[in-house]
Structures are given as structure tokens and as C-alpha cells.
Design brief:
Layout (H helix, E strand, L loop, with lengths): L2 H6 L3 H14 L7 H15 L15 H9 L8 H17 L1 H4 L5 H18 L3 H12 L1 H17 L12
Helix pairs in contact: 2-3, 4-5, 5-7, 5-9, 7-8
């Protein structure tokens, strides 16, 4: 694969750094660093997980998927990890993919749902420090959702072209 492999090569660390930097750029100067890092890690995670993933919880394709998995199934309400996943999926789709989801879904309703998912995750989380972080994300869900949407719009506006000085293969 040669130069093309080198050009397209990336790993989790580089993707995380990309989202930390770019999310920081669309955030206010006084944003909580721990919340910033958590949100960047959510974006980095879903940037690397397929909607058809078998090994991990797949990335959702629409907010309807979130509804079917986490609202319709009330058995997950006391499972911290599942509530956290539900919250991250609401954040991803109602935030980063807001413009695409807005045509078919009530973004405000899903934002409230996502906030509630994080609050439930915090309530059932065993680790006190993680519970505090999840609670903070739940309380600050709407500002984070808006930052995700801003970042998405900013990335679509930027011209990011891959260029090569030689043969690709």
C-alpha cells in the first residue's frame, strides 16, 4: 500500500488528539477540561466504531435506534454503562449530527433524554469520580450538544484535501 497507507494511517491516540483540539477550539475558554476530554473521547470512539460493529456496542445510525434500544427497553434503566452509552449516543446524534437528524427528530426532546441518561448513569455508577463526571455531563448536556454541533459545522466548512506527491499504490 506504500504512501497511501502512510497518508491514511491513524490510531486512537491521534483521533483523540484531533477531537480534543478541535472541540477545544469551539468551546469557551473556561470549559471544564475533564468534561472536554470526555466529550472528545466520545467523538473519537464513535469515529472508529461502525454502525455494524460486532465486537462493541455499534454506533447508532439514527435517533430512532437510540429510542428502540434505550427507551423502549426499560430493563436497562439501572445499568450505569448502558445509560452512559445511551447518553453518548444522544450526544453524538443530537449534537454532532444535529443537522442530519433535525429533519426527522425532535432534537430538544432527545437532548433532554440524553441528559436524563447521563443522570441515571451517574446515579448507578460505582466510582464516585466517574459518577461526578457523568452527573456534570448530564447537567451540561445542552451546552455540550451545541459544541458538538458547532464542531461538526466547522469541520464541514473546512477544506481538508488529501494530496500526494507520488503514486498512491
Amino acid at each position: 500500500m506504500g504512501p497511501l497507507k502512510k497518508l491514511l494511517a491513524t490510531d486512537h491516540q491521534r483521533i483523540l488528539e484531533f477531537f480534543v483540539s478541535d472541540l477545544h477550539d469551539v468551546s469557551e475558554p473556561n470549559v471544564d477540561p475533564q468534561e472536554l476530554f470526555y466529550n472528545a473521547s466520545v467523538l473519537a470512539h464513535y469515529a472508529q466504531v461502525s454502525t455494524q460493529a460486532d465486537a462493541e456496542w455499534p454506533a447508532p445510525s439514527t435517533l430512532s435506534t437510540v429510542f428502540e434500544h434505550f427507551v423502549s427497553d426499560t430493563t436497562l434503566l439501572h445499568d450505569s454503562l448502558m445509560m452512559e452509552i445511551a447518553g453518548t449516543q444522544c450526544l453524538l446524534l443530537a449534537g454532532f449530527f444535529e443537522d442530519q437528524m433535525r429533519q426527522r427528530h425532535n432534537i430538544r426532546w432527545y437532548a433532554e433524554l440524553g441528559s436524563g441518561f447521563f443522570s441515571r448513569a451517574a446515579l448507578h455508577e460505582q466510582s464516585p469520580s466517574k459518577a461526578r463526571l457523568l452527573d456534570a455531563i448530564g447537567r451540561h448536556f445542552e451546552p455540550w450538544r451545541q459544541r458538538h454541533a458547532r464542531l461538526s459545522r466547522e469541520l464541514r466548512r473546512q477544506s481538508r484535501l488529501l494530496t500526494s506527491s507520488g503514486p498512491l499504490m
